[in-house]
Design brief:
By secondary structure, the protein is of the alpha/beta class. Helices cover 37% and strands 22% of the residues. The strands form two sheets. The protein has a six-stranded mixed beta sheet, with helices on both faces. Pfam families: ABC_tran.
């Protein structure tokens, strides 16, 4: 059973609104690491919200491990880090980990051990019993990622996970993601940063609610005749917009 399957998905908030996603299809296999690359407004976060069951598609289907939203039985298998902080500021870092760990189905006897492991890995042990309201932005990002990993998920969904982190922290997190991926965890990451996308073995290019290209960074560059992903993305984007403009021009 494929971890992630989106089939002909379109989404808009109401009939008066424009579509944010249009006839989008995407699939991620077991143990694959995908980067969803696109600028702000391309539909990345909307796609993630659909995957998490936070929104329901206007048309088409979204499946996680074969189950459609809201993924009642599959949710414990999904680790999620939203773009905006979902932490409780009036709890400590350790208390946040315990609270979200329980929600994710971590057994009570395992909470303390798992929380301690993650606090150590993300260099938060010394701040573990400090209120999250006292954390810096980078510390909050690291704690959010730790929460996403509490239940040792089979599918990890990260929306702009390294925003606000310094280069050393970013490298450490990427190394952890690669290790998890090597252990068979399926990972989806959204980003608008090209050098982040170039780290990933699989990239899907999003623009205006469509996937306009996908493959490895090398395959995408080769297809576009470019040496770097940024140039390839811009060329594919320009070509897609020209194609649509021609399609919209009525024939005389």
């Amino acid at each position: 059973m494929e971890p992630v399957v989106l089939s002909n998905v379109s989404f808009r908030y109401s009939r008066k609104d424009d579509y944010i996603l249009q006839d989008l299809s995407f699939q991620a296999g077991v143990g694959e690491l995908w980067c969803l690359l696109g600028s702000s407004g391309s539909g990345k976060s909307t796609m993630i919200r659909l995957l998490m069951g936070l929104n329901v598609p206007t048309s088409g289907t979204v499946q996680v491990f074969g189950e459609c939203a809201p993924f009642r039985t599959m949710r414990p298998r999904i680790g999620y880090m939203p773009q905006d902080s979902a932490l409780y500021n009036d709890l400590t870092g350790r208390e946040n980990l315990h609270f979200f760990g329980e929600l994710s189905g971590v057994k009570h006897r395992e909470l303390s051990t798992r929380a301690a492991e993650l606090l150590d890995f993300f260099d938060l042990t010394n701040a573990a019993d400090r209120l999250v309201s006292k954390y810096s932005g980078g510390m909050q990002r690291r704690l959010s990622l730790a929460i996403a990993l509490m239940a040792k998920p089979d599918l990890l969904v990260l929306d702009e996970p390294t925003v606000g982190l310094d280069p050393r922290q970013r490298l450490r997190i990427w190394n952890q993601l690669f290790q998890m991926n090597a252990d068979g965890v399926t990972i989806l990451i959204t980003t608008h940063v090209m050098d982040e996308a170039e780290r990933c073995p699989n990239v899907a290019l999003l623009a205006d609610g469509h996937i306009i290209g996908s493959g490895s960074p090398q395959e995408i560059c080769q297809h576009a005749g470019k040496t770097r992903l940024e140039g390839a993305f811009l060329q594919i984007l320009d070509g897609e917009r020209i194609r649509r403009e021609k399609h919209l021009v009525p024939r005389l």
